[in-house]
Amino acid sequence: MNQSDNSAHVAFVTGGAMGIGASICQQLAAKGYTVLVADINLEAAAKTADALVASGHQAAPVQVDLGNPESIRQAFAAVEKDYGRCDVLVNNAGIAKMAPFLDFPLENWLQTMSINVTGVLVAGQCAARLMLKNKWGRIVNISSISGIRAGAGRTAYGASKSAVIGLTRQMSIELAVHGITVNSVAPGPVDTPMTEVAHSEETRQSYHRLVPMRRYGSTNEIAAAVTFLTSDEASYITGHVIPVDGGFVAAGVLDI
Hints:
Layout: E1 10-14, H1 19-30, E2 34-39, H2 42-54, E3 58-63, H3 69-83, E4 88-91, H4 106-131, E5 137-142, H5 155-175, E6 180-187, H6 193-198, H7 201-210, H8 219-229, E7 241-244
Parallel strand pairs: 1-2, 1-4, 2-3, 4-5, 5-6, 6-7
Helix pairs in contact: 1-8, 3-4, 4-5
């Protein structure tokens, strides 16, 4: 597929209504994709899609619950009916609930795994089946540095993102023969509506101390890595995890 003409091509972005997802939608729309802003919050998805359309792009909202496999299947059935294809899938939707390991509620564990892992699996299957038609596809799963390095309170979130990294590799080797690449972007701390709620002042101070760049990232910085992985220039990159983290994963002792 020639990236210079994406006008007929479809990108499906979960959790696309706000935060990192909204920035991904903006950048893919700027590349010419018809962007499907998929989110459990249809009103917020419609607002994001409408803003893209008002800027001259092609976009539409899709309601989908990543914790409900049937909701995912119905969403992709509608994509097939309305567009006949899916060229890019970005599995961005996810939840994070923090609690000490000894007290971590089982219901939170189960919900996190359902949305963050099973949702990625089912959406990946649905999208890849549509990509088979054209023998071309790009799947980018948003994981996290918490899937690479453990963090306090992240029993479910960290384990789920580790699972996303493993699933990314599994998907990549099985879909490569079909012209589909599968990679993961692992954000470091990023200023988003989710981190505003989930990150305490102590957490923020820890990140500012441990991230060599001494700052949080922006949603556009994460989206730029995702956009690159969807491009023709990334055609021989598959099965990899790219931390976009200001050096957090690489860091050890930072002071002499």
